[in-house]
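Appendix B, Record 12. Input sequence as logged:
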Amino acid sequence: MQTEQGKPTPHSRFWKAATFFWLILAAIGAVLPLMPTTVFLLLAAWSAPKASPKLEKWLYEHPRFGALLCAWRDERAVSTRSKLSALLLMSCSWAVLYYLYGLGFVSILVGGIFMCVLTYLFSLPAPQKPI
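Logged structural output:
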């Protein structure tokens, strides 16, 4: 989304800023156990093509996340390793929540949300190409 002179439009600037915002949140989620990474990475992959072809290419060719994003884009597939990581991290997060606050409304609600997310995640196929 550029003008005829090759300058970015305000619209493309918005999408570029949004993409970098999602990428920053994904990076934070990669180191903080209670913050998701995958959701923000998928949002970045969704907004990157609207920002610029170069940014989209960079994201899909990224050595760490490119194969995962391509599997999602091409096959709507999630690797078994990613599914097991999600299961482990959600279980640990819920265990910490339970340890700190006991079996109250919030821990039951969060546990229910985690179960719904995991049910959906494990219903998705594994990618045909190895990641």
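The helical segments are 10-31, 38-51, 53-60, 66-75, 80-101, 105-123.
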